[in-house]
Amino acid sequence: MTKRVRSGRILCIAVIAVPLLAFPPVAPTLGQDEIPINSRRLSERALLTWACDHFQGTNMIVLTTSEGLVVIDTGLSPTTVRRQRAMIEQELGRNDFRYLINTHVHNDHAFANEVFPEATVVGHELSIAEMRREVDLIPELLERLRSSQASYLGWAEWAAGEGSAPEEEEQAREGIAAFAVGIGDLERGIEPRYPTLTFSGHESFQVGDLQFLLYPFMGFHSDSDILILVPEERMLFTGDVFASGQLPWIRLNSAGSFLTLMDTWKAILDACPDLEMIVTGHSDIPFTVGEFRASYGYLSQLWEAVCEAKEADTGLERFLIGSSFKEQYPEVAEYRYIYNDLNFHQHNVTMMWLLAGG
Ligand SMILES: [Zn+2]
Q1: Domain of 330?
Q2: What is the number of structural domains in the chain?
Q3: Separation of 77 CA from ligand 1 center, angstroms?
Q4: Gap from CA of 225 to ligand 1 centroid (Å)
Q5: Of the chain's two ends, which shows fewer C-beta atoms within 10 Å, N or C?
Q6: More confident position, 152 or 93
């Protein structure tokens, strides 16, 4: 990612290096009803909606079935998601929301679940505890949102004062408004809707004439991630697990389930060999089927190489010196692999080394 840097999972907050100047906050901002909301048909049966044109929005998807609408993820702000709901109802001409599936329950994906009170919330069984933690952390989240909003205010002032490109000021104003509506909702208090239909292993979930395959996929992002495959639509919904052009890296606290995760990954590829589209959790994060396959190929080949090295009694340091992923894994050679001083490839090797015993 270039200009936008995701700061963990706070909303979607792309905190940009913003010059904080001591100007009084005078830039006019957008009202909460002026924040742009967008929609795009992914297919006859799938509609994608998100808020904002410049600021990163959460992808909320609706699929139509013969037994009602199925929503995938919501957002942080119930106020904004209510407007998206109205847009969906208008575009689809129906409002029979039946299920809401959370890819995971970070605040920016699940805090607006209350907008669909009639829908049964579906999620991994671990997502209930994770959502409780998210709710407990609202005071800290509010602090971060206020501080990021102040940075955006400074940016808007600076952009207006410098006479920089009008788009830059527009982007800053949109960000300020997005923070304001989120902060307002959290200050008033949200009504958390926890998953009530939960599962632990792989599930086939049939809703009328549409099948949803739910795969637990913890290991890269949160403690409750699932991937949702809709074979008939040849679509996979991945939440925040993947981002385009980035080497996948194994999280420390879920390294133990790496092999299960790889089995799941293969099962998804096998279940839908003609997969056409991957929809991530955010409006500005693309991810292609090619990248999904290449990332799997990289990790499975690396695992084999690590196991072989272990058998041959090669030491970790020697293996690392001899392991240049750019040469050995050309399919992912151009992916970003260093972030905040962490070398993803070396980290993966180290994690696998531990897993392979020793
Ligand atoms: Zn997330």
Answers
A1: 295-355
A2: 1
A3: 15
A4: 9
A5: C
A6: 93
